[in-house]
Design brief:
Organism: Novilysobacter ciconiae
Shape: elongated
Number of helices: 3
Protein name: Cbb3-type cytochrome c oxidase subunit 3
InterPro entries: Cbb3-typ_cyt_oxidase_comp
Radius of gyration: 17 Å
Keywords: Membrane, Transmembrane, Transmembrane helix
Order of helices and strands: HHH
Helix content: over 70%
Structural class: mainly alpha
């Protein structure tokens, strides 16, 4: 019975992460992160600084 509860809990966590990942607000951040591997020179600010700057606004 405990394994059934764990299975349901993990399924709900998976669905929650899936919904979070497909939210339109995350698209720009995910696209920026995906482009990092293709950039020739590293960005001076980096992703962490970009997110900090975005939260300050």
């Amino acid at each position: 019975m405990l394994s059934g509860f764990i299975t349901v809990f993990l399924m709900l966590v998976f669905i929650g992460v899936w919904i979070w990942a497909w939210r339109p607000e995350n698209k720009a951040s995910f696209e920026e992160t995906a482009r990092l591997a293709l950039e020739d020179e590293p960005d001076d600010l980096g992703v962490a600084a970009h997110h900090a700057r975005k939260q300050d606004a």
